[in-house]
Amino acid sequence: MSTQKKRVPAIEGWFVADGTVALLGSQCTSCRSYFFPKESFFCRNPACQGTEFEEVPLSRRGTLWSYTNNAYPPPAPYVAPDPFVPYIVAAVELGTEKMVVLGQVVKGFEIADLRVGMEMELELDTLFEDAENEYLVWKWRPVGTRGGA
Ligand SMILES: [Zn+2]
């Protein structure tokens, strides 16, 4: 007996989800640098005076750069469920943009399952839920482990 909950992003405007999930970054129109979360005012490239940005979907795959157990709730604007459940956080370097994006690793993986240099892909998952909504967020999954029994 489950009523259909509404699936909504836990953080508005950080990703698009229509079947697959893609993070939304911004790209400086002057130097073409990518930023995530989106940059809207000043380019962070010290050699660039750019102030205009385009919203762009970022690569869905990247290389595992670093990872750790996260035993404490992350700072805002990251959203954490309450009560807090420890999880693995992965820093993944996106293939095209060469920028590092943090995210939780999907449930079912241990630190021992991961190694630097692994190919990772984005997956949409529930971060937490309340009576009406499921709040969705991106997570990282090692490539080739989707749908395993
Ligand atoms: Zn720039």
Number of helices: 0
What's the overall geometry? globular
Order of helices and strands: EEEEEEEEEE
Q: Give the strand order, joined by hyphens, for the main sheet.
A: 6-7-8-10-9
The percentage helix is under 10%
First-last Cα distance? 25 Å
Report the mean per-residue pLDDT as an integer.
89
Estimated radius of gyration: 16 Å
Strand content: over 45%
User: Given the helix and strand composition, which structural class is it?
Assistant: mainly beta
The largest sheet is: 5 strands, mixed, barrel
**Distinct compounds present:** zinc ion
Instruction: Enumerate the spans where pLDDT stays under 50 for 5 or more consecutive residues.
Output: none
DSSP strand count: 10
Describe the structure.
- The protein has 149 residues and is mostly beta strands.
- The protein has one domain (9-142).
- It has strands at residues 6-9, 15-18, 20-28, 34-35, 53-57, 61-70, 87-94, 100-105, 119-129, 133-142.
- The strands form two sheets. A five-stranded mixed β-barrel has the order 6-7-8-10-9. Strands 2, 3, 4 and 5 form a four-stranded antiparallel β-sheet that branches.
- The two termini are 25 Å apart.
- The model has no long low-confidence stretch (mean pLDDT 89).
- It binds zinc ion.
- Zinc ion binds at residues 28, 30-31, 33, 43, 45, 48, 50.
